[in-house]
């Protein structure tokens, strides 16, 4: 089976999109080329639910169901036949399909569990809305309780229903990494210095600016690359105070899952962005860009005027749905080789800059904590707010990381001034 994007019928006026038009909706085709009716009805129900799912989430759901049906096809199984013994039932056969790869750590349990949960959602939908009654249980359920820290640092417990289809998490909880929307490794201060110096040697002002923006705000790549001209203010070159950029639902700047955020960016970073926007280099790129209100124009454009990351709000305006591939290619093909040539043999991803920012925040206030000027909960709350964490458990991982990997760093403000001096020279 294949999953393909649907297109409006030719007679449908594309300029008019009513509430039933779903941008990026996908359908699943059977081997004979006909639509899989029940699967597509399920996808449609997911697309119409509130809060609205992103196109990426809907696409992943379609891909997961397609993979499930292909496994059924490979084993000549009817995915509605639950009459057999437990290991013969479709849901258990799908789990067994991944068992060896997960046990060998060739596949992450988290990713596989996402596929299995998509299948569970599909069956629950069929049982609830399509009168499907399995001959025998498709899985076993149990009620369990999970605990998490709330925004005040207090433990809250909630009840969840789990099944025996998912795998125990096999991710490496190494103290060398932080798990914050992925497996991240904070760069040590000398590594951050090396990255900035390498960027200065390359003389690519766009890359220098977007790396600095991520390192001193904690923005994810989709947020950094979708900031607009109207988000940048005129500030002084030595201003270490912070000024907010609004992002997420209701704003032009993308965030993970559209979560509303007010992101604090140092004044000196604003200054450098503002200066860049006045440059002939940026004006040349903007002249080739899609015509739009100046305040809504992307800050980070390619040489041909294309955004380095297409906001979810603009997907219907561009043929390609660029998601920052130029940045990843730059790290792989330019920055990493240059670092190695200068004797620095570490590797990193752009997302590691977010973890580096988080650790810089912790280091900045550890001295205040040691002096008793702030409390432990105040430290947690401060870091959580700056990184926009929903779970305090994620924030705690930053504090645990520093406690386990004890190192002495200068205060963040001093480090900002150090980087500013590098950029000036």
From TrEMBL:
<keyword id="KW-0233">DNA recombination</keyword>
<keyword id="KW-0472">Membrane</keyword>
<dbReference type="InterPro" id="IPR013762">
    <property type="entry name" value="Integrase-like_cat_sf"/>
</dbReference>
<feature type="transmembrane region" description="Helical">
    <location>
        <begin position="194"/>
        <end position="216"/>
    </location>
</feature>
<keyword id="KW-0812">Transmembrane</keyword>
<dbReference type="InterPro" id="IPR011010">
    <property type="entry name" value="DNA_brk_join_enz"/>
</dbReference>
<dbReference type="InterPro" id="IPR002104">
    <property type="entry name" value="Integrase_catalytic"/>
</dbReference>
<protein>
    <recommendedName>
        <fullName>Tyr recombinase domain-containing protein</fullName>
    </recommendedName>
</protein>
<keyword id="KW-1133">Transmembrane helix</keyword>
<feature type="domain" description="Tyr recombinase">
    <location>
        <begin position="182"/>
        <end position="412"/>
    </location>
</feature>
């Amino acid at each position: 089976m294949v999953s393909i994007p649907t297109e409006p019928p030719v007679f449908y006026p594309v300029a008019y999109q009513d509430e039933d038009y779903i941008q990026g909706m996908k359908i699943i085709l059977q081997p004979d080329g006909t639509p899989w009716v029940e699967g597509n009805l399920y996808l449609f129900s997911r697309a119409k639910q509130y809060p609205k799912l992103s196109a990426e989430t809907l696409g992943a759901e379609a891909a997961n169901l397609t993979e499930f049906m292909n496994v059924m096809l490979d084993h000549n199984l009817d995915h509605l036949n639950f009459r057999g013994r437990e290991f013969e039932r479709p849901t258990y056969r799908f789990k067994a399909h991944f068992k060896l790869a997960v046990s060998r750590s060739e596949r992450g349990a988290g990713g596989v569990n996402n596929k299995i949960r998509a299948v569970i959602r599909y069956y629950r939908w069929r049982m609830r809305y399509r009168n499907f009654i399995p001959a025998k249980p498709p899985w076993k359920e149990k009620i369990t309780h999970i605990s998490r820290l709330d925004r005040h640092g207090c433990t809250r417990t909630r009840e969840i229903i789990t099944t025996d289809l998912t795998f125990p998490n096999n991710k490496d909880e190494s103290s060398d990494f932080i798990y914050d929307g992925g497996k991240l490794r904070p760069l040590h201060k000398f590594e951050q210095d090396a990255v900035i110096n390498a960027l200065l040697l390359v003389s690519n002002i766009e890359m220098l600016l977007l790396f600095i923006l991520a390192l001193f705000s904690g923005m994810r790549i989709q947020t950094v690359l979708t900031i607009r001209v109207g988000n940048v203010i005129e500030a002084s070159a030595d201003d270490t105070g912070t000024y907010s950029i609004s992002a997420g639902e209701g704003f032009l700047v993308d965030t993970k899952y559209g979560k509303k955020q007010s992101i604090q960016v140092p004044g000196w970073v604003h200054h450098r962005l503002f200066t860049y926007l006045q440059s002939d280099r940026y004006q040349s790129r903007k002249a080739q860009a899609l015509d739009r209100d100046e305040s809504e124009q992307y800050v980070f454009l390619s040489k041909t005027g294309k955004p380095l990351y297409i906001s979810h709000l603009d997907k219907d305006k561009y043929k390609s749905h660029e998601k920052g591939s130029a940045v990843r290619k730059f790290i792989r093909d330019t920055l990493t080789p240059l670092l190695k040539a200068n004797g620095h043999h570490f590797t990193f991803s752009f997302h590691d800059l977010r973890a580096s920012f988080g650790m810089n925040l912790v280091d900045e206030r550890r001295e205040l904590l040691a002096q008793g000027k702030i409390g432990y909960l105040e430290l947690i709350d401060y870091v959580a707010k700056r990184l926009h964490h929903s779970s305090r458990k994620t924030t705690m991982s930053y504090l645990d990381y520093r406690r386990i990997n004890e190192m002495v760093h200068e205060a963040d403000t001093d480090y900002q001034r150090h980087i500013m001096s590098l950029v000036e020279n």
